[in-house]
Design a protein that fits this description.
By secondary structure, this protein is of the alpha/beta class. The chain contains seven helices and seven strands; from the N terminus they run βαβααββααβαβαβ. The longest helix is centred in the last third of the chain and has 17 residues.
Length: 170
């Protein structure tokens, strides 16, 4: 386990976990070297979209290796391009990515829920899990279910809940 790896897990889709990963990475990159791993296997490519780097990743993508690109001073890895490609993701590939990014001062992971077996190398280096939830009925229900499952595999002291509240006032 690395003392420098933090995984953000959205309690439900649209909770803001990917956005938090990008913004936290941007701020931390001002102080040191940062790696950001898009491990959300839904294939929505949120990190690439938020960083305006879809074309960058598409240009670097190889048949058997996820692309890693330097974007805004952050070393970013995109594990899958589509949901279909997530089914062929192998733990060996994820292990290779994890070994590469551990050279950075901090590693931020946009992790999916539920966890996929191929992501075990990333989950094993995570020092802190941040579960991102919205203060809504659906957000709370999703977070409660996720936390119950999560705590079966990960100790409580390595887990925290982040309340993502969007200010409706403009």
């Amino acid at each position: 386990m690395s003392n420098r790896a933090v995984s953000f897990i959205g309690a439900k889709g649209g909770s803001g976990a990917s956005t938090l990963c990008v913004e936290v990475s941007r701020q931390l990159a001002k102080c040191g070297s940062v790696a950001l791993i898009d491990a959300d296997l839904s294939g929505r490519r949120s990190i690439a979209v938020l960083l305006d780097a879809v074309r960058t990743f598409d240009g670097l993508r190889l048949e058997d290796a996820p692309p890693i690109a330097l974007v805004e001073g952050i070393e970013v890895a995109e594990l899958v391009q589509t949901l279909v490609s997530s089914f062929s993701l192998r733990a060996e590939i994820v292990q290779h990515i994890a070994e590469q990014v551990l050279q950075k001062d901090i590693v931020i992971v946009d992790a999916p829920q539920p966890y996929a077996g191929a992501l075990r190398p990333l989950m094993s280096i995570t020092a802190k899990y941040l579960i991102v939830m919205e203060p809504t009925m659906l957000g709370t229900t999703g977070a409660r279910a996720l936390i119950a499952d999560h705590l079966r595999a990960v100790s409580q002291h390595r887990t925290a809940v982040v309340l993502q509240r969007r200010d409706q006032r403009k």
